[in-house]
Amino acid sequence: MRNLLSQKEHWSKESSNTMLINDKPLVDDIEKELLEKVRNLIIDQIDNPNLTVLDLADAMAASERKVYRLIKKLTGWTPHELIKEVRWHYIENLIRTKNLKNATEAAHAIGMKNVTNFKKQFHKRFNRTIEEMMAKNA
Predict the structure, then answer these.
(1) Which string of DSSP letters, residue by residue, matches the chain?
(2) How many domains does the chain have?
(3) Integer Cα distance of 42 and 67 in angstroms
(4) Which residues of the chain fall below pLDDT 70?
(5) Distance (Å, rounded) from C-alpha 45 to C-alpha 59?
(6) How far is Cα 83 from Cα 64, in angstroms, rounded to an integer?
């Protein structure tokens, strides 16, 4: 045990050129970069109703399990929840910046086929109907 502690002390006194795994700022930057990559992957396929964690894992060249753990660690959400969250933010921004014609167009923009379900989920998420939000931002 003393040997391990002395080795740790020795490594921590090394020059600043030494990259340590416990270097928190470096890890945070890498994690932020990975999370941004995941968000960009989701946005690139925002209208794909069949987007899955496997698709994200393939794009990141990682296992599903690794991607699940990473997303859960960084956001506190499961990958499925993150996909939904990114989609809701995307449609909210789309409504504010663009004049969508109707709820069907909005649903398809974020990859939801069932417009009725989209309307229910939208109302649950934003506590107002899609039509109210579109009218407000028209």
Answers:
(1) -HHHHHHHHHHHTS-TTSPPTT-HHHHHHHHHHHHHHHHHHHHHTTT-TT--HHHHHHHHTS-HHHHHHHHHHHHSS-HHHHHHHHHHHHHHHHHHHS----HHHHHHHTT---HHHHHHHHHHHHSS-HHHHHHHT-
(2) 2
(3) 13
(4) 1, 4-27, 138
(5) 11
(6) 14
Are 101 and 71 in the same domain? no
Distances (CA, A) of 33 to 2, 10, 36, 38, 130: 37, 30, 5, 9, 33
Largest CA distance in the chain: 70
Structural domain of residue 66, as residue ranges?
Answer: 24-80
Global model pTM greater than 0.85: no
